[in-house]
Structure formats: structure tokens, C-alpha cells
Write a structure and sequence with these properties.
Layout (H helix, E strand, L loop, with lengths): L18 H18 L29 H7 L9 H17 L5 H13 L9 H18 L2 H15 L17 H6 L13 H16 L2 H19 L1 H25 L5
Length: 264
């Protein structure tokens, strides 16, 4: 079902692979093995549902509209579980600190091999690559459509009249110049965790211009139609990819249920 706000698309139903869940399952098995070898290796609890932040849809695509721009500008929305995110970051730092210990590489490689046991939870990338390829194909068609080209001109004129810098040709290619990216703390040495009032004003103007020019609407509708054609042409293969992804997720959930620490 169409939902522009969530940017739902026909290929979404086949993208069942939960790579975060699968990585967590593998890390739990590796952690168990490394602990048995004497390493201080504790994998922190993670919500196996891995809920997305409010600016990311169910398919993992980052969203952008007037409401999102008004809250977070061009910054990412905060994590739905900051404690969980911090725990995983701390875990990564700790693992990197262990890499200098003697025999670490051989121990880690051995544990990875044992965890995968000849069946890498993350080994099946052909399906993901096929889905990604189809998605990029549909996006390319939409972005090069004459209707979108006309909307882009209106969007560019609209936003250019609202800001004090040179706007990029498209929202997806160099929208903000480097100087503005640095001013907003999005790149450079002075990164900021939250958007300034100026950034929110610019992002909101951008989102409003995408709306008034019908750029977002035209992009979405054309991309939807193109994806639907690709689904119709490749349904058998897509059904197989969906089933395989579900099976790998089920296997990962079993591993998590057997090996994850208690929820805090």
C-alpha cells in the first residue's frame, strides 16, 4: 500500500533480511567462544527487534519531510534506545582494545569459523545485492524523469530564494555546500549532536519547497510505478529471496534466545 510519508515501495515486502539481528546473533556466538579462551568478552543486550529511529522507515530508508525537518533539521533523529546504542558503542571500543593482545587474530578467526560452522549467517548477499540493484534502477528512472526535472527547477528556485548560499542542483547531490555543512556541525572538527535553529529553518524551507514543487510526490509515484514493474518481472526470484531472508532471521532469533544476556 502506498504511503509517501513512510516512502513505502513495492520491493519493501521482499527485503526481509534483518542484518542487525544476524550480526548480533553472530557476535553472541563469537563472544561465547572468545570468553572460553579467556578473553574479557561480554556482548551487551540488544533489542532483537532493533526498532528504527523515527526518521528511518521499516526498509531502512532515511525519511525527510516538513515534520522531520522541523524536529531534527538534517541531523539524524536520536536513537529509540540510547542506552542500548551506547552499550554497543562501548562494546566495539572494548573489542578493539583487545586486538593488541597476543594471539588475538588467530583466536578471533577461529571463533568466527566456529560460530559460522560452515554456514555464515551473513553469507547470503546475492539476494540483498539483487534487491539493491533493482531499487537503484527504479530510483535512477525516477530521478531522470522529465516530470521530476521540471519539479527540480521549481524546488531549486524556491529554496534558493529562502537561503543565503548556493543550493546544489538536486537534494540528493551536494544540496548543501561544505561551508554550510560545517556551519551546521554536520561535517568537520566541530560536529554537533543536534540541529541549530538556523539549520532547522533551512531544512524546513527545503522540505516545504519539495512539497510545493511536488518534487517528493512525483519522485515517489514514479519510483513506485517503476518498482512495481520490476516486481512483476522478477516475482519468482523475489519470493525466493524473501523466504530465504525470513529463514535466516528465524535462525538468528533462535541463537539470540539461547545466548543473549537478560534485558536490563
Amino acid at each position: 500500500m502506498k504511503n509517501q510519508a513512510q516512502w513505502t515501495l513495492p520491493l519493501d515486502e521482499f527485503a526481509t533480511e534483518n542484518t542487525q539481528l544476524q550480526n548480533y546473533a553472530e557476535q553472541l556466538l563469537v563472544g561465547k567462544c572468545m570468553s572460553s579462551l579467556g578473553y574479557d568478552w561480554v556482548v551487551p543486550w540488544q533489542d532483537p527487534d532493533f526498532p528504527a529511529p523515527p526518521d528511518v522507515n521499516a526498509a531502512g530508508l532515511r525519511l525527510f519531510d516538513v515534520a522531520i525537518a522541523g524536529k531534527w533539521g538534517y541531523h539524524f533523529a536520536p536513537s529509540t534506545n540510547p542506552e542500548q546504542t551506547q552499550a554497543w558503542s562501548d562494546y566495539g571500543e572494548h573489542v578493539r582494545s583487545l586486538a593488541t593482545e597476543p594471539n588475538f587474530d588467530s583466536s578471533f578467526d577461529s571463533c568466527i569459523e566456529d560460530a559460522r560452522d560452515g554456514d555464515d549467517i551473513l553469507a547470503e548477499q546475492d539476494g540483498n545485492n539483487f534487491l539493491s540493484g533493482l531499487g537503484m534502477q527504479a530510483t535512477s528512472v525516477a530521478e531522470s524523469d522529465p516530470q521530476v526535472a521540471d519539479a527540480l527547477k521549481e524546488w531549486h528556485q524556491c529554496l534558493s530564494s529562502a537561503v543565503d548560499f548556493t543550493v546544489g542542483k538536486t537534494p540528493w547531490e551536494g544540496l548543501l555546500p561544505d561551508s554550510v555543512l560545517q556551519r551546521f556541525g554536520l561535517v568537520g572538527e566541530q560536529l554537533s549532536e543536534t540541529a541549530s535553529a538556523e539549520e532547522i529553518a533551512v531544512a524546513t524551507a527545503d522540505a516545504e519547497c519539495r512539497e510545493s514543487s511536488q518534487l517528493s510526490e512525483k519522485l515517489y509515484n514514479i519510483e513506485w510505478a517503476e518498482q512495481q514493474k520490476l516486481v512483476d518481472e522478477n516475482r519468482d526470484k523475489l519470493e525466493a529471496i524473501r523466504a530465504a531472508g525470513i529463514a535466516r532471521n528465524d535462525k538468528s532469533r533462535e541463537i539470540v534466545a539461547e545466548n543473549a544476556p537478560p534485558a536490563p
